[in-house]
Design brief:
Length: 152
């Protein structure tokens, strides 16, 4: 679903998104900043990093993308699209090469700093820490209610 509420078909990310740059790498994947070509919306495009991921793990990521796309919660990023890169062979994306069939999830782009950077800049007060914990607990509760377990 786009920000305007108009559903767009799941599509090949190379066609649907224009990758601007790589912004990070986590345990499960590589994240790119990209722009949705039709709407201009900025997204975080996460592509599974391991070429050795078993089909079961790939399907699990796609299932999680589907479940997450159904959650509307202020503490959980909105899923814009999810799917798998084409099966026609290797795919170049943001200067990296991925195998065909590699899962991806496109999420709303959030500007700002992460909690680690914020805490390094200035310690959080007790009140700020408690508020942060409350927000995280509510978001995790919403995800758990849908059967989703956060793994990162």
């Amino acid at each position: 679903m786009t920000t305007t509420g108009t559903p767009l078909p799941h599509g090949e990310p190379l066609q649907r998104f224009e990758v601007e740059r790589e912004v990070g790498q986590g345990a499960a994947g590589i994240v790119f900043r990209a722009r949705e070509r039709q709407t201009g919306e900025l997204v975080a495009l996460k592509v599974i990093a391991s070429p050795d991921a078993h089909q079961e793990a790939r399907q699990q990521i796609l299932d999680e993308g589907e479940m997450l796309s159904e959650i509307e919660h202020p503490g959980i990023v909105r899923i814009v699209d999810f799917g798998a890169l084409g099966d026609d062979g290797p795919v170049e994306l943001g200067g990296r090469v991925f195998l065909g069939g590699t899962p991806y999830i496109a999420m709303e782009w959030l500007d700002g700093e992460d909690l680690v950077a914020r805490a390094a800049r200035a310690p959080l007060t007790l009140r700020q820490s408690l508020e942060c914990a409350r927000q995280v607990a509510r978001a995790l509760g919403a995800a758990h209610a849908r059967g989703i377990v956060h793994r990162d």
